[in-house]
Amino acid sequence: MPHRVAVLALDGVLPLDLGIPARVFNEACEPDGTRLYSVVTCSLGGRPVRTHEDYRIVVDHDESALESADTVVLATQEPSERLLATGTLPEELAAALDRIGPGTRIVSLCTSAFLLAAAGLLDGRRATTHWALCDALARLFPDVDVDPDVLFVDSGRILTSAGGAAGIDLCLHLVRLDHGAAVASAAARRCVVAPWREGGQAQFIEHPVPQDTDRSTSATRQWALDRLAEPITLEDMARHAHMSVRTFTRRFRSEVGSSPLKWLAQRRLAHARLLLESTDLTVARIATACGFGDPVALRKHFHTHLGLSPLAYRRAHNAPEPMTGR
After folding, report:
1. Total-model pTM
2. One of this protein's Pfam families, by short name (predicted)?
């Protein structure tokens, strides 16, 4: 049975962000094309919704859709003056959120984190929102651990994302959690978006498109991706880019939003996940193929970033068990 996703649209919703969950989740499919998610959009009372732009939208469902959902997504809605002044929700919205089941996964896109915070769902949790409003969120809700420097935060049942394209990253992250890297990558290809941006990547990248393409680090990034099995140092990457280590590190961070070695570790981990899902290679061979050197280092990365051992991750994604070895 498909995983049921209910997207809640409220007055002031950003139309682009409202379409993100359906766009991503509907592209997650079985090999035969069967969709893995069923996405519905709802509003309070099933009423038409006034968007942030110059038009309204009509939806086919009311807030009762929240009761049967496996995942609820609050589409981006800029916080109202009342919410910013009082930190409280309108009674109708509070009652709607109360209809969400205790085991339901809840996701906020961008500034809808304010709604979750006002409902008390972020108390004691790490969360994020658009970088321009992180300070306001922290001031208004001091019990929330606001992180302004990440694309999204996965704190288990509750997940929050930054603005714009970070909502795509978070939805792909959920597909990856539910069905593995191969399904998420295929969905990303069909959406024509990047298949993997780590949640810990910086929200604001000063120069996303380098003015001097001859001095970009993109060629070196591809060079490193083609050699994940090899030991690669920061000095190796800087040498390939014909830059000093200091210049390369600064330029890399301005283009990618993270340090070169952190980015490289993320790419190696992503490749290891894909090999665990799609092959019967032993953990030792996967560790070598991804440049971790030995199984101990691979297991350490999996426990740190995923909370699972490589073999537990393989079992969770119904991947083939290796014939021999570990």
Report:
1. 0.76
2. HTH_18
Contact 41, 61 (CB under 8 A): yes
Q: Pairing relation of β-strands 105-108 and 71-74?
A: parallel
Residue 321 is predicted with a pLDDT of 58
DSSP H stretches of helix in 8-142: 15-25, 81-86, 91-98, 113-118, 134-140
Residue type, 277: E
Q: What is the DSSP string of 38-67?
A: EEEEE-GGG--EEBSSS-EE--SB-GGGGT
Full DSSP string of 143-165: TSEE-TT-SEEE-SSEEEE-STT
Query: Of 37-46, 62-71, 90-99, 144-153, where does mean pLDDT reach its minimum?
Result: 144-153
Which residue ranges make up each domain of the chain? Answer: 3-191, 211-325
> Which three-class secondary structure state does DSSP give residue 30?
coil
Q: Which CATH class is domain 3-191?
A: alpha beta
**Rg, Å, the chain Cα set:** 21
User: First vs last Cα of the chain: how many Å apart?
Assistant: 33
Distance between CA atoms of residues 228 and 225, nearest Å: 5
Structure-token pair, residue 47:
């009423």
Chain centroid to Cα 69, Å, comes to: 20
CATH number for the domain formed by residue range(s) 211-325: 1.10.10.60
**DSSP element (H, E) containing 106:** strand 105-108
The better pLDDT of the pair 210, 216 is held by 216
Task: Using DSSP bridges, classify how beta strands 158-161 and 152-154 pair: parallel, antiparallel or unpaired.
Answer: antiparallel
**Segments in 144-259 forming alpha helices (H):** 166-179, 181-191, 218-225, 234-240, 245-256
Res 308: pLDDT: 82
pLDDT for 185 = 87
Confidence of residue 306 (pLDDT cuts 50, 70, 90): confident
